[in-house]
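Dear V.,

Thank you for sending over the compound details. I've combined the ligand you provided, pyridoxal-5'-phosphate, with the protein sequence from our construct and run the structure prediction for the complex. I'm sharing the raw inputs here so there's no ambiguity about protonation or stereochemistry in the SMILES, which I know was a concern on your side last time.
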Amino acid sequence: MIPTSRTLDVDAIRKDFPVLGRILPNGKPLVYLDNAATSQKPKQVLDALTAYYELHNANVHRGVHTLAEEATALYEGARDAVASFINAPSRDEVVFTKNASESLNLVANMLGWAEEPYKVDADSEIVITEMEHHSNIVPWQLLAQRTGAKLKWFGLTDDGRLDLSHIDEIITEKTKVVSFVLVSNILGTVNPVEAIVRRAQDVGALVVIDASQAAPHMVLDVQALEADFVAFTGHKMLAPTGIGVLWGRQELLEDLPPFLGGGEMIETVSMQSSTYAPAPHKFEAGTPPIAQAVGLGAAIEYLNGVGMDAIAAHEHRITEYALSRLAEVPDLRVIGPTTAEDRAAAISFTLGDIHPHDVGQVLDEQGIAVRVGHHCARPVCLRYGIPATTRASFYLYSTEAEVDALIDGLHHVRAFFG
Amino acid sequence: MKLDSMYQDIILDHYKHPHGRGLRDGDAEVHHVNPTCGDEITLRVKLDGNVLTDVSYEGQGCSISQASASVLNDLLVGKELGEAQQIQEAFLELMQSKGQLEGDEEVLEDAIAFAGVSKYPARVKCALLSWMAWKDATAQALAGAPVKESA
Ligand SMILES: Cc1ncc(COP(=O)(O)O)c(C=O)c1O
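Below is the predicted structure of the protein with pyridoxal-5'-phosphate bound, written out as structure tokens.
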């Protein structure tokens, strides 16, 4: 469905999310501002899960009975939904995983076991950035340790953006792969894809994009990104936990070796050796998360119904409003871009000397759910000389009234520890 | 209000005016972190025979973790090891009680203020950070870890 207007009806949307009406044990209504950690789920997704289990449950790809065919059609239908959601040239380029972390580990392992020209070895360099989620750092550290490759990264500017000033020294002829986050989960920064992709293509490096915080919030077009792999995770985009996506260019998925072996991913097996199913099945060993994939399909249908550009526009408005109101709070320092330009709706901040744990605890007492800590991006905290941050993150159902509640809550925190 | 049961005045006082903070001579040093939230502590213990003559520390973290280190310093410095270990165990038991214990004031003194924290699973680790570091450092000191001078 093509949205005709860039506005969305927040009140109507909120009614689709049962948990948003919840009153907490302390009598306060829930103000859920932890969307970058995971989103809430609408009835439509919950209903799809229930209907799947009540009516169609069977294992996929391996039965001739009616339920097996229905389950397979639903699972593969979810793949179609993902493919069109991200504008993939082919549905066979969509690999289901359990989350973004598995998707990223899958790519790192494919490259570790690959033949030339993709093989990462002791002469290779791997490039990431200082604002990556640990899920896009550790797999590359492991690959570097196991192969002897060198791990390099882009640093950050003081205002929370990538420092690309030394791009030609960081991405070199030795670079085999460049992996970076499209939208930072801690800083909220939207990164300039084109400059990085151009340089990577010039030196023949593969490009991996972690779109975990992009897919839920904006139009994601893998062809426009010109990346080789794109990873994201279902639970941040209204779907259940346990389902993630790795999109990869078809010829790469054909050429690269499998990582996990098992049922579903084979063509024939003898005791001596096996041949593999074509992609994407080559990368989906074992019984997949079927109901979760069906849930992801329903989530995508819901998001399409609202319209991704309407969602992006709504979040942009909320972000602008939140940044302007946060600026009113004394001693509050935003960690990341302070304007809404090239910025998404996850806002990290510190509040004087008050530790984020204490901020989060006092906010919780008022029903406000934020995330505190290093948000699985500890290098960012080290870069800005802070132990941790408090992060408020918004989504399609967030309201200005919730921003106001956050601001009131922060004044209360200051009074409490003042 | 529930918050006051966690943030007792005693805790806030220790947080704002920590006792014994700063690193001094020790027989062993450890560095412990709480990986979920980034709280960190560096802690040294100094023993004279069987007596714990100093616990010095430096760290960053929330009010609960900082106040807890201050209370630890108050409670344990000057004690014989056996008694210090009993206090540590009593504190551990209190923190694992999920709000069921009040704590023995004879043994735990100011530390009974942390009873309310034990109801918040995410914060129990904050309260225990320095106590686990102390236990580890003491074990290392007894095992004859290399002496560290203060910088
Ligand atoms: C930018 C980014 N990358 C990767 C991940 C990992 O997602 P998951 O835990 O679902 O694998 C997250 C989620 O926290 C994220 O925000």
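A first observation: Chain A touches chain B at residues 26, 355-358, 361-362, 365, 372-374, 378, 381, 387-388, 416-417 (CB under 8 Å).

Warm regards,
I. M.
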